DNA sequence: CTGAAAGCGCTTACAG
DNA sequence: CTGAAAGCGCTTACAG
């Protein structure tokens, strides 16, 4: 009877060596078989898979990452989780990546470039297989970290004409123009723009608003209410009250996001301001609850799930090398007309 | 001039060896110094840190995880991201763990035990340093995976008397009883309970509702409207309409979550049902927007940020071995009375 | 307090 | 198509 000598530092886990031994092949062949490399004899490969199943073998991701210099995690950076927009985006990313063997690793930047940089510094050393980031607005240091990491990166929610930049988004400016045009077509003349957060995408919507009103000869800078505060229902209510008091002749408001628009609608309810009779109200994104507001909210349905899916798909191609050139995909948004305008 | 021989597989990265060389010590000493072990001569440690800084050394997490059999990631499993409750929880967890050198890895189960199991099977091989899960309701297989992994685990949002189980939460049942009692004190007799999702915590609130009404001799099972659908504003509106039509004598509704309560309030606005004149409406969780509803919503403020912080703190103790025994911490909730009741 | 050796569990690069 | 050797970059366990 041999003494039960355990190796000095065994973790007790079933290793590739065990599988190889059971299948009667070398560890390299076992490794190749399990990773589905083509260069393995089908019969051998089958024997290896069988042995792995029987032993309950699970590859060690750390060993794999160390040896191959690449993990299967995909770092996904979003500004916030409290905006349902990004939750929809993340869900779509997960649905696309996870079944393909990649695990999204969510990082929240809070619209703060220092935080984004810290997240990159923390997670890039893990050698993620890919990177999904929101928009193009980041510190130069963050940009350098991404480029020098050599990790394939797709930008979400905005589009860019810059060559070699992979992105999936839609035209925030055109969408902003579309909803403004809709208000004009409803016969409104004094159309206000209420915004919070003031991130680049909000400012692009603002530009669409301005462009449209200028073309109509109706632009008035006093009708722009821009707050750097975090977007919220409570803030929307305050902005609405403020605007109605200070600018009694306003006959329409384009809120840059549905949550502040909902707040505006609730404030109108409380103040008994007739919507759309006296003031038309429009939002942006078509978030949960907008269709149930009184009156239901006119808004832009943004394709965030589609952005997530298409962005993850593009990244998959980049990571696997099946997509040679980074692309820029522009998706469609949709104007949803409800009773608030 | 020596030929520029690069090692066969160098990743080009600065390694611990480089730092040790620059500091004139062995790699083990460098490793100990950088991890802050006490057994290193302060002067040497300082020299190592200096060298590391100068060279821009960043430890390789994969190598570290492989050698130490432990990563610095903490797996956090929540049911949904679309419920603001869990977003608050995650934010608190991140704020607590990240500065201490641990990175939360978010997994979303969608209230599906098969998905939870798959997430555990996928992420446990990464040897996370700790595990944070929502509630106690999971498959036996999932439970076994957790126990056998040996990874310290804290359960969030519910409390349990079971010994050896680490948890941080509050009494869902008592909170449900508290809001029901409040409605009774307002003189309501026909108090309905509207619920969605029907996860264990919702059912515990239901139990608190039943207990309280039974004690008051006012329990009527026909006043319970339980929907297995996902909780949402739209569903809340439907449940409200349904209830008002089928049970015209209902004079109060306790919604199990603020989002369906908000939907109920919006339906009341649309149907011109007087709240609280004809029907009092109460919610649960105190989510964004509840204070802005018309009328503002009475609800229970649940301590989810506190749960996240305290749960992460407890896990920190468990991971570091400074907390010998798993504990069960019960936190307080707060009744927020607004004008809807 | 410090270090030489071994090892964590894989994959790469080379050879056949 | 298959494998022996080396190596990825750390830390553990032992010795001094």
How many beta strands in the DSSP annotation of chain A?
12
How far is the first residue's CA from the last residue's CA of chain A? 86 Å
Rg calc of chain A: 26 Å
Overall structural domain count of chain A: 3
Characterize the main sheet of chain A. Answer: 6 strands, parallel
Q: Quote the beta fraction of chain A.
A: 5-15%
Largest interface: A-B, 46 and 46 residues
Mean residue pLDDT of chain A: 94
CATH top level label of the largest domain in chain A: Alpha Beta
The count of helical stretches of chain A stands at: 12
Full CATH superfamily name of the largest domain in chain A: Response regulator
The helix-strand sequence of chain A is HHHHEHEHEHEEHEHEHEHEEHEE
Strand order of the largest sheet of chain A: 2-1-3-4-5-11
Shape of chain A: elongated
Domain HTH lacI-type (chains A, B): 14-68
Protein name (chains A, B): LacI family transcriptional regulator
Pfam family, one (chains A, B): LacI
Keywords (chains A, B): DNA-binding, Transcription, Transcription regulation
């Amino acid at each position: 009877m041999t003494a039960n000598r355990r190796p000095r530092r065994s973790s007790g886990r079933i290793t590739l060596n065990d599988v190889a031994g059971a299948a009667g092949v070398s560890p390299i062949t076992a490794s190749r078989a399990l990773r589905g490399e083509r260069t393995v004899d089908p019969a051998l490969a089958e024997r290896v898979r069988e042995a792995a199943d029987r032993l309950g073998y699970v590859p060690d991701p750390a060993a794999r990452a160390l040896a191959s210099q690449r993990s299967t995690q995909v770092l996904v950076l979003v500004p916030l989780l409290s905006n349902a927009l990004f939750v929809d985006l993340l869900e779509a990313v997960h649905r696309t990546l996870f079944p393909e063997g990649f695990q999204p690793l969510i990082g929240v930047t809070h619209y703060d470039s220092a935080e984004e940089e810290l997240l990159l510094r923390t997670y890039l050393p893990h050698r993620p297989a890919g990177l999904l980031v929101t928009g193009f607005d980041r510190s130069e240091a963050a940009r350098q970290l991404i480029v020098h990491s050599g990790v394939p990166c797709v930008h979400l929610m905005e589009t860019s004409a810059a060559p070699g930049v992979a992105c999936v988004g839609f035209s925030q400016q055109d969408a902003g123009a579309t909803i403004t045009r809709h208000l004009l077509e409803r016969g409104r003349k004094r159309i206000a723009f209420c915004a919070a957060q003031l991130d680049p995408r909000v400012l692009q919507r603002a530009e669409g608003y301005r462009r449209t009103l200028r073309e109509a000869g109706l632009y008035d800078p006093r009708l722009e209410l821009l707050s750097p505060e975090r977007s919220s229902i409570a803030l929307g209510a305050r902005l609405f009250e403020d605007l109605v008091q200070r600018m009694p002749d306003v006959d329409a408001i384009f809120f840059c996001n549905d949550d502040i628009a909902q707040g505006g609608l609730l404030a109108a309810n409380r103040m008994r301001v007739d919507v759309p009779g006296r003031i038309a109200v429009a939002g942006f994104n078509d978030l949960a609850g907008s269709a149930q507001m009184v009156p239901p909210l006119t808004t832009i349905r943004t394709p965030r799930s589609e952005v997530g899916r298409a962005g993850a798909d593009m990244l998959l191609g980049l990571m696997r090398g099946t997509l040679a050139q980074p692309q820029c995909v522009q998706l469609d948004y949709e104007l949803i007309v409800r009773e608030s305008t």
